[in-house]
Structures are given as structure tokens and as C-alpha cells.
Amino acid sequence: MKAACIQMDIRHCKKQTNIDHALSMAKEALAEGAELIVLPEVFSTGFCYDNIEKNAECAPYPIIETLCEFSKNNDCILIGSIIEAAEDGKTAALHDISYYNLGFCIESGKLAGTYRKTHPFGQEKSYFCGGDTILPIRLEKNKITIGLEICYELRFPEVARKLSLAGADILITIAEFPNQREHHWKTFAIARAIENQIPHIACNRTGEDPYSTFFGGSMIIDAWGDVKAQAGDEECIIMHDIDMREKDNIRKTIPVFDDRRPDIY
């Protein structure tokens, strides 16, 4: 499967501008043969805290409806996250509305599944509730299973391992990792691929917002942990043709999953 990561500069709180820009870059990726396209964390708004109530969306999510139409017209997979406002009995910081960082996976025009970020980081905790479920998302048409994690969760090996044990064929991390943690990003992203013997698309943003600047550094890593495509610090699209069968061969060669000892750890 030919996969693309859209490394974009997210314009702070400018929803329509970001959506238009993301889809323009996605069209470029499609022209090069991309089948699976990954967008950065909260790609449509960034962490727009000052206007979060205005920019958050409730089901059926207008942004996702727009992306579903694009996916249907181009028969592609789109993955990313948006800010969700959900009245579900929990209380967030503003107006008794729960905000979530909602990951999504769209396949050929249909919303295949969602994932609420379970580990908000730093300032996010004042605005976002954490999700309470970590499960992969099955793509029925393409017969693959996506393990989606969001930004800070890259630091938790338990998340990627749980997704892998639950049958994920590929790990995808969408993020807004800032400049000062570039080394951590590279190390963690490669480690998650190696330890789970799974291909990994790590899609970061670039540019800046009122809180941070971002180095980019998006990567597509194979199941051996070899970096097959890597971005610098500018807006760009990186692509690689991922062999979804490779992980099964690697797990036969080095049977980490068979040799685990969950009885003692």
C-alpha cells in the first residue's frame, strides 16, 4: 500500500484555510499514487484554546463529512484528528462540555472508526478529557487494521503494544511534537516500530503556533525499524510503498510475540 504523510504548517484557528490546504496537499499525494494519507494532529485548527468552543465539532462532524466526500471521490484512506465537543456526562474546563482530541480513519468515503486520545499532555489537560478505550480500527475494503495513537502517546510503549496485540497491521502516530523534543520523537518513533515489528507512519506538523515551534521530521518506518522516508522542517509530502506482509515474516524470524512472558510482566 502506498502511504503518504502530509507534513503541513497548521494556521492557528483558521479552520477552512487548513482544510483547504490539507486537501490540496492530499491531491498532490494522490497524483503520485497514494492510497493512504495521514494528516497531523488537530490538522484543521491546531490547539485553538481561545476559540475552542467555536471550533470544536459534534457528531456527525462537518469536517469529517467533508473528508468523507473527498475520500469517496478519490477512493482513498484519510487519517487525522479534530477537536470534538461531546456532551457525554463528563465535565471539561469550559461550559460543562467535554472536549476530546478525536482521531478518525476514513476509508473510501466511510468513517471506519474513531479514537479519542487517551493521554492529554500539559496544557491540553485543562481543555480535553482523555478517552478510555484503545482499540485498532479495521478497514474492511482494504482488509487491514490501523493502530492509531496521538502525539504524547508515542512515549507510552503500552499503547503501541496493546494495538499490536489487538491485531494492528500498521501503527500510525499523528502529532504536534515541538522543536525541543526532536531527538525524543525520532528515537520513540523508530523504537515503536522495532519493538512491535510493525510499519510505523509518524506524521508531525511543522511551522509554529502561539505556544511552540515545530521541527517536522515526519517519518515512514518499516517493520525492521528502517526509516524509508523522512521529512525535514518544511511543509512537504513523504511517501513510501509499505509491504503489509513484512511484519509477519519478521515475527517468524524473531518471534518476539511468541516469546513474551505475560505471566510475569
Outline the structure in words:
By secondary structure, the protein is an alpha/beta fold. The chain has a single domain (2-259), classed as Nitrilase/N-carbamoyl-D-aminoacid amidohydrolase. 26% of the residues lie in helices and 28% in strands. It contains seven helices and 14 strands. It has helices at 15-31, 52-55, 62-74, 157-165, 182-196, 246-253, 256-259, and strands at 2-7, 36-38, 77-86, 98-107, 110-116, 137-139, 144-150, 170-174, 200-203, 206-208, 213-215, 219-221, 227-230, 236-241. It has a six-stranded mixed sheet with strand order 5-4-3-2-1-14. A six-stranded mixed sheet has the order 6-7-8-9-12-13, covered by helices on one side. A hairpin with a 5-residue loop joins strand 12 (219-221) and strand 13 (227-230). The model has no long low-confidence stretch (mean pLDDT 95).
Topology:
Elements: E1 2-7, H1 15-31, E2 36-38, H2 52-55, H3 62-74, E3 77-86, E4 98-107, E5 110-116, E6 137-139, E7 144-150, H4 157-165, E8 170-174, H5 182-196, E9 200-203, E10 206-208, E11 213-215, E12 219-221, E13 227-230, E14 236-241, H6 246-253, H7 256-259
Parallel strand pairs: 1-2, 2-3, 7-8, 8-9
Antiparallel strand pairs: 1-14, 3-4, 4-5, 6-7, 9-12, 10-11, 12-13
